[in-house]
Amino acid sequence: MSELLLAVTALLVIFMFTAGTWFGHFSVISLFIYAQAVMAFGTLPMLDPAVEADAVHAAVILWSFLALIITAVLCGIARPRDTRSNYNASIDYAYPRAVWLLVWLSVCISVLYYVAVGYVAFFESIRSLSGGSEQDLAGLRLESYAGSRYLFPGYVNQFKNALLPALVIVVVTTAFHVRNSLRWLIAVLLVPAVVVFLLGTGQRGAFVSIALIAIVLVYYVRPDKLGIYAFRFVAVTLPLFFLATFATGRASRDLAGADGLGAMIGVMFDQLAFRL
User: Fold this and answer.
1) pLDDT tens for residues 258-275?
2) Distance between CA 22 and CA 256 in Å, rounded?
3) d(CA 14, CA 8)
4) What's the pLDDT at 203?
5) pTM greater than the 0.90 cutoff
6) Cα distance between the two ends of the chain
7) Nearest C-alpha neighbor of 102 from the set 34, 186, 167
8) What does the alpha-carbon distance between residue 247 and residue 138 come to, in Å, rounded to a whole number?
C-alpha cells in the first residue's frame, strides 16, 4: 500500500498549494481534507492488497480523497481569488441555557461511569508507579472500558469524550470573551474534570482530538494570538499526553529498551505520531 500512501501525499500537497491556499489552510474544507488524509495514512498501511475486502477498502479511501481534492480545486478555480474572506468563520458567542444542562448531564454520566467501574485507571496507574508496586497496567486499562461487565462504554464516550469537552470549550471560551466574573471558577472546575474524564480509562485518542480542536478554535477566536496561545496549550497538553503514555504502560517495552533520555523522548514522540 506504499504507492497509495504516496498518492494520498501527492494529492494533499496539490490541495495545500491550490485550494488550501485560496480558501485558507484553516478553512472548513481544509480541515475536512486533513481529517480524511489522517484517516488514509492511518488505515492504508494496515490493509492487505491480496485480500479483496482490503483492496476495495483502499480503493474507496483513495477515490473518495481524489474526488474531494478535484471538487475543491474546481470550486477554487470557479470562484474569484478575492472571496477568501467569505470562508472565514463568524463567531457567535451566544448559546442557549440548555447547554449547561447538557454539561452537567455529561458530568453526572461520566462520574457515574467511573463509580460503576470502581476506579480511574489513569490515577491507579500513577499510584502504582509512584508506589513501586507491580500491577498489570494494560489489564487495568482495558478492564476500565472493556471489562467483563458491560457498562455501555460506547454510549458513555459520547458524553465524556465528545459532548462534554466540546461544550466546555464553548462555555469557557464565552466566559472569558464576555469577561464573566465567574470565568476562572468555571475554568478551574470544568477543564480539569474534562481532562480526568478523557484520560481516566487510559485512552488517549479523544484527548488528542480535543486538543487539536481547541487549537483550531484559538485560530478562529484569536488568530492574532495563535502562536502564543498554541504554545501555552501545547506546553500543558504534551506533558499530559506523555504522562498518560508512561503511566498506563503504553510503549513500556520500547521505553525500557531506550538508551538514554533522548531515546526515551523519541519513543514518546513516536507514540504521539501514532496516536495522531
Assistant:
1) 677 777 777 777 777 777
2) 47
3) 10
4) 80
5) no
6) 19
7) 167
8) 10
